[in-house]
Amino acid sequence: xxxxxxxxxxxxxxxxxxxxxxxxxxxxxxxxxxxxxxxxxxxxxxxxxxxxxxxxxxxxxxxxxxxxxxxxxxxxxxxxxxxxxxxxxxxxxxxxxxxxxxxxxxxxxxxxxxxxxxxxxxxxxxxxxxxxxxxxxxxxxxxxxxxxxxxxxxxxxxxxxxxxxxxxxxxxxxxxxxxxxxxxxxxxxxxxxxxxxxxxxxxxxxxxxxxxxxxxxxxxxxxxxxxxxxxxxxxxxxxxxxxxxxxxxxxxxxxxxxxxxxxxxxxxxxxxxxxxxxxxxxxxxxxxxxxxxxxxxxxxxxxxxxxxxxxxxxxxxxxxxxxxxxxxxxxxxxxxx
Length: 337
Ligand SMILES: Cc1cc2nc3c(=O)[nH]c(=O)nc-3n(C[C@H](O)[C@H](O)[C@H](O)COP(=O)(O)OP(=O)(O)OC[C@H]3O[C@@H](n4cnc5c(N)ncnc54)[C@H](O)[C@@H]3O)c2cc1C
Ligand code: SF4
What we know:
Structural class: alpha+beta
Distance between the termini: 45 Å
Bound molecules: flavin-adenine dinucleotide, iron/sulfur cluster
């Protein structure tokens, strides 16, 4: 581990000032960053411990939206009464992730910023464009069972591993940030980025910017939602494929739909054209199969992960069936059904 400066500011302004150099990093729960430092993958020049900042509250705004402070833990968010009642898809996605101990420490801001779980990214003895730009991508032609089937580039085929962010994508969240140039709000669809030729940049946060909160508008799909996570083990494993699905149905006709996928790309994947194609259609397996094919029209396996294309197709259909039936999967129930 390299030498680094450690500071613990008490105000957002002081934190932003301290973060205003490229190699400075915020430290929240530490469940990802400290691991990466131990593996010598992250080498921050300065650790800005943000745990004293007043960013730990969950509030309902005057417009009925949910405001989540960046330091709210995954546990507090998932079990919050309002979140369970009004944003259950978010609660479900968070509880599908990690373990209770990790969720007690991990924060909302840290979850948004967590880095890929590509095996080569974690192994500094291998080539990896995300860890060391220009060195190559060991996963292309290598072991790539967990990698992307959508949105990958010749530089990187890694996926974003978060569950929480997939639900947030379906819920049209926006990320509130504050930096040297003031405050701005980034729609979640524009927060994470595809790798393109710059896979080292996971998101659109600028140097010195701090995530302060996440805003989620009030949803209007009632009980018709689900978060389906397909993984190698029933708990404590990242998603091979996950689907956050929500529908608004009137007299058997789909009025509105949201479908976000995890485990398929560098970012939670939402296809607005595919969603539009489902509006006005009758609820049923034929419409669901059609939209699954639409979403996956450009999907491409990398060899070991070819199975993910068919797995994603089936997961989308199953999630939409669960959502339409108003039978979301309970994350406390680990049985397969
Ligand atoms: C064994 C294991 C299993 C896991 N399984 C899952 C899973 O199934 N699903 C899932 O979604 N996640 C899973 N996780 C990941 C876990 O959810 C993340 O590690 C966690 O959410 C990161 O949050 P943190 O607060 O600990 O972040 P930290 O480790 O403190 O920080 C992570 C990154 O975020 C940055 N950061 C943190 N807060 C801010 C902020 N406010 N503004 C700007 N930058 C910030 C840091 O600088 C750092 O780069 C797993 C982790 C482990 C170790
Ligand atoms: S997929 Fe991305 S993170 Fe993995 S080795 Fe290739 S460049 Fe690195």
